[in-house]
Write a structure and sequence with these properties.
The protein folds into two domains: 453 residues, no CATH class; 66 residues, no CATH class. It is built from 20 helices and two strands. The chain has a two-stranded antiparallel ribbon with strand order 1-2. Strand 1 and strand 2 form a beta hairpin. The longest helix has 39 residues. The chain starts with a helix and ends in a 7-residue tail after the last helix.
Length: 538
């Protein structure tokens, strides 16, 4: 195993471990905010206000600019640290300027809509909340590029831990709601939004502190003019190619917010979604994004700098890509299967129960949304890896063409399926398009994979086969736990929430134990890559 291959496993472990901490806090954040907002119009408004700046963060900060910037910055850091510092200074300055202008334009546009639109309290509240949270966008985009720089220097930990600041700030803003008599969710939505913006500023400070001693900020844009132009030319295709899931998810948000922003009818026919639909969609998305963010994206994040360094060696590059495929499926496929099996019960455990949170009907709707999204967690993970592998080889157009087709297909499927499946139709469309994108990206990536242009060589194909078989073995265990808990709960007189807790908890423990236990007994390479202590560097 080469040092670069080992580094992927080690860096995946670092990113996944710290991301797990932040995601657990993020889950706590969701549990707190869902108790404040529930499946209500206020919950939908907050979810939409949070989605707008987050889309730009994922496209600019963690997506297009980061993917275009990291390979160039990584190469310059190795060859000429002074020019790398100049490129970083120029990039951060341009990013702050552009995102700041975009924020100002959107703020003025939303304010104009508020002034001229027909008076509607819910609509005005939602749009005002968007205006409050928009400054989150330029700050978090700058922080994300700083995080990419840290990763280029082999410092994966600080940026993986940065979201903890967001979660702590939001949780802290929510706490008074539960102790202040007569607290109103509408008012606290603004307080929580302001806390999110403050957290973005703190993440910028944190990332700058972590970068100290690793590089020098330098003026001199003329020194890196050619690199900067090449990077900017790459941005638009990268933005589309890497942001397909984010764009599709944002389209889901726009469609779900139609009743809140436009009205309850379309062409004289009652719209199939309602004012609570976006809250249902948002909180269900948060659950499938947990394993995706902790593990799936961690693999692609850890692999990207190593793939960029190996771009000139087809055999080494292909070996890293196949290793990334195996790691992505080793984590993503059982995650998909497990979430499909326990999704509805998981929603009830986390988001309902007591006097706050989701209503019974909202929990049922969110459960089906989660099941639909979860079918493709493995595909979302592979898409991140395949797309970044092409960017590492300077192929920006292939992922863009595929992504444009998938975004178009998603829009068509969305507007058709919502009439039969409501919010779940949006999730089904996103999952189907993700699988289609994965197939097309895999075919396109074959030419870069070495070994005669095959991603699934003998060893990789055998590994994928084992992962599929063991993931299928998880199904009866998970479903049996959920069903067994219901039978036991009925006989013991447990409440519905307690029954679901026992069912989900036993399903997670026993299913994960079975999958990982077999992997340990069979000495699977994927498990050793994630757990072994390695001292080699990329």
């Amino acid at each position: 195993m080469s040092s670069g291959d080992g580094a992927i496993g080690r860096h995946t472990r670092v990113v996944a471990g710290l991301t797990l901490v932040s995601r657990v806090l993020g889950l706590v954040r969701d549990l707190v905010t869902v108790r404040v907002f529930g499946d209500t119009v206020v919950g939908s408004a907050f979810a939409a206000a949070f989605a707008v700046p987050n889309m730009f963060r994922r496209l600019f900060g963690e997506g297009a600019l980061s993917a275009a910037f990291i390979p160039v910055y990584t190469r310059l850091s190795d060859e000429d640290p002074d020019r790398a510092g100049a490129l970083a200074t120029l990039t951060i300055g341009l990013l702050a300027l552009v995102t700041g202008v975009i924020t100002l334009v959107i703020e003025l546009g939303v304010w104009g809509v508020i002034l001229v639109a027909p008076e509607d309290g819910d609509r005005v509240f939602s749009l005002e909340l968007v205006m409050v949270m928009l400054p989150f966008m330029p700050l978090i985009c700058v922080a994300a590029i700083l995080g990419g720089m840290l990763q280029s220097h082999g410092r994966f930990g600080p940026w993986a831990a940065a979201p903890v600041l967001l979660n702590v700030c939001v949780i802290g803003a929510c706490v008074p709601y539960f102790v202040v008599e007569g607290a109103e969710a509408r008012a606290f939505a603004f307080y929580i939004g302001i806390a999110a913006v403050v957290s973005a500023g703190l993440q910028v400070v944190w990332s700058l502190w972590a970068l100290r001693g690793l590089m020098k900020w330098k003026r001199g844009a003329s020194e890196v003019r050619s690199e900067a132009r090449a990077m900017l030319r790459r941005m638009v295709p990268v933005m589309i190619g890497l942001g397909t899931l984010q764009l599709n998810t944002f389209v889901d948000t726009l469609i779900a917010m139609y009743p809140n922003w436009v009205g309850g009818t379309v062409l004289g026919r009652e719209y199939p979604l309602d004012g609570a639909s976006n809250a249902v969609l948002f909180y269900a998305q948060r659950l499938y994004q947990f394993p995706l963010g902790v593990f799936g994206i961690a693999v692609a994040t850890a692999a990207f700098p190593a793939l960029a360094r190996a771009a000139g060696d087809s055999e080494r590059f292909g070996g890293m890509l196949r290793r990334g495929v195996r790691l992505s499926l080793f984590i993503g496929l059982p995650s998909s299967v497990g979430l499909v099996c326990v999704g509805p019960a998981l929603v009830r455990v986390l988001y309902s129960g007591g006097d706050s949170g989701f209503s019974d009907g909202g929990a049922v709707r969110a459960g089906w949304v989660l099941v639909a999204y979860s079918c493709a967690v493995w595909a979302y993970s592979l898409n991140q890896l395949f797309t970044r592998s092409m960017y590492a080889r300077d192929d920006m157009t292939t992922p863009m063409r595929i992504a444009l087709g998938m975004v178009g297909a998603n829009v068509v499927l969305n507007v058709v399926l919502i009439w039969w499946l409501r919010e779940a139709g949006l999730a089904v469309s996103t999952a189907v398009c993700a699988v289609g994108q994965c197939v097309l990206l895999a075919r396109a990536a074959k030419r870069d994979s070495g070994s005669g242009g095959r991603i699934l060589d003998g060893e990789t194909g055998a590994s994928v086969g084992r992962i599929v078989v063991r993931s299928v073995m998880v199904v009866p265990v998970a479903l049996g736990c959920v069903w067994g808990a219901r039978v036991l709960g009925d006989s013991m007189g447990w409440g519905a929430w307690t029954t679901d807790v026992v069912g989900v908890g036993s399903a997670v423990v026993l299913s994960a134990g079975l999958f990982l236990g077999i992997a340990w007994a069979k000495r699977d390479s994927e498990l050793s890559w994630l757990t072994a202590r390695m001292t080699d560097t990329a």
